[in-house]
Sequence to fold (376 residues):
Amino acid sequence: MKSKVSNVVVIGAGIFGVSTAVQLARRGVATVLVNDGPVANGASGRSLSWLNSSRWRSDAYHRLRMAGIDRYRTLAHRHPDADWLRFDGGLTWDADGDGNRIEAAYRHEVSLAYDAQHLAAGQVPAVTSGVDVAAITPQGAIFNPGEGWVDLPSLIRLLVEEFQERGGWLVTEAGAARAVIEGGRAVGAATARGGEFRADAVLLATGPSVPQMVAEAGQRIDDSTPVSLLVTTKPVGAPLKAVLNTPRVAIRPAPGGAFTLDSAWSEEEVEIRPDGSYRVKQETVDGLLAEASKVLEGNPTLELDRFGVGRKPIPGDGDPVFGELQAIPGYFVAFSHSGATLGLIAGELLAFEIATGERHPMLAPFRPERFRAVAQ
Fold:
């Protein structure tokens, strides 16, 4: 299908921005990808990046996530030896107590034909390795064989390489950028360092900054963005392959034999200073490493390699926000949690909409105007 636009500017080189830019380049659309610093320097660089559609969400969101996982399977087939994309399953259990919903979650997942196995602790070693089964609560665990993980910085580097090979223009270290609006429509982007790029359409994919940036254009996207903390260990000889989602820590393997860790409680301990910077206490990091050790077979000593801290984009109602701002033609946005799971499919569908001028039905429930309508 012939594109209805000849050039596009994408602001933000996280997974949504890079994925969309590549898809536009594949369609032959001249595309400029602008980032304030190096690529993957925002939320995409500190994401657990668990590829899943487990537990409860709307049917539309579940379908979109499953399409996202499908695109990763295609990518995995093309890169069978990649150490940054694996489908070795996911294992999850809840805390012991009245709030334990493992049985209900299992029944829900089965009702959707989402591949799930409800296992007692003693059954876990037969399906996945590296777990200290003594940590699993009496209600058991769910193993989802079809789940996986991706290292987003590695994927972004791969996509940027293709983008540039296809003639895309990457501009990094540009400082803050904004959409330029003239005559009521988006006509390009301007950067803090003086660069200006004219275009037929603009995609804003700046992660947690999206709501404030569209607010400056008089538009509304509700925002529930919290602080995130992702800890990466030094390489350790532990046999864990699945992603673990447990009451006190989530763990996934990482390239080179390391692990990445996060949790809700450790994020809540991050201190936000008056100037907007963050302070992460040593005891928080040590506590997260200790919690991870408790659920790994042999309880290995885990050492800190690095951590990343910053805002994690989550829309106010929890659902993704994708598509054109109805009030400003040519101004598209991408703002969502689950950036890893949705990364490839979101780029594909946004590029379709930008290039063709058509609205894709899978994005219908996730339009930005749902917030504008609430405000009226």
Observations:
- The chain has a mean pLDDT of 96.
